Amino acid sequence: MIRVLVVDDHPMFRDGLRQLLEGDDEFQVVGEAADGHEALAVLESRPADVVVMDLHMPRMDGVTTIEHLRTSAPHTRVLVLSTYDTDADVVPAMTAGATGYLLKDVSREELRDGIRAAARGETVLSRSAAGRLVGHVREPELLKPREHELLRLVAGGATNKEAAAALFVSEATVKAYLLRIYDRLGARDRASAVAEGYRRGLLG
């Protein structure tokens, strides 16, 4: 039996996914969580083989959660189930350590197959996500995942203090990340870095 943890900030979606999986004797839903913090807490007492997780969540997002799971639950696979398939979503998630990336419009059987494959450690990708990764391989990575996430926070208006809290790092580390971002994007300040990020398709 494949033990599954469902992580999404929309209760109705979690309920639907639970009902879908519990209708199949092959799956056992060990719990639900609304964000990364809750997911990590649940996994401390209820281990899962596969975490089916959204990326855009409050408090702790999907990419940060995946990074934490690499050390706290290295044998747990993460299958991202998202509405979005932009470079800014797919690439950081897979780089952080996700086993697969599917979109929420997949069929029931495609999702079940994806969870089975993820439990075996096989990479599972929607066609659009695969295309994003191929394009990423062809073009050298410009920003590291954490730098990319910081740029997204800055674009959203976060201060250094707010970004540090969101990334669980110090303000000094945020300032160091920003300097590297400026250097790699050829930017002189926060505003020009964000503008360049949009121009290069890093933000969307």
UniProtKB/TrEMBL annotation:
Superkingdom field: Bacteria
4-aspartylphosphate PTM sites in chain numbering: 54
Domain HTH luxR-type residue range list: 136-201
InterPro entries: CheY-like_superfamily (IPR011006), NreC/VraR/RcsB-like_REC (IPR058245), Sig_transdc_resp-reg_C-effctor (IPR016032), Sig_transdc_resp-reg_receiver (IPR001789), Tscrpt_reg_LuxR_C (IPR000792), WalR-like (IPR039420)
Coiled-coil region(s): none
Domain Response regulatory stretches: 3-119
Pfam families: GerE, Response_reg
PROSITE patterns xref list: HTH_LUXR_2, RESPONSE_REGULATORY
Keyword Translocase belongs to the record: no
Record's keyword terms, sorted: DNA-binding, Phosphoprotein, Transcription, Transcription regulation
Keyword Oxidoreductase (UniProt): no
UniProt protein name: Response regulator transcription factor
Organism the protein comes from: Paractinoplanes pyxinae
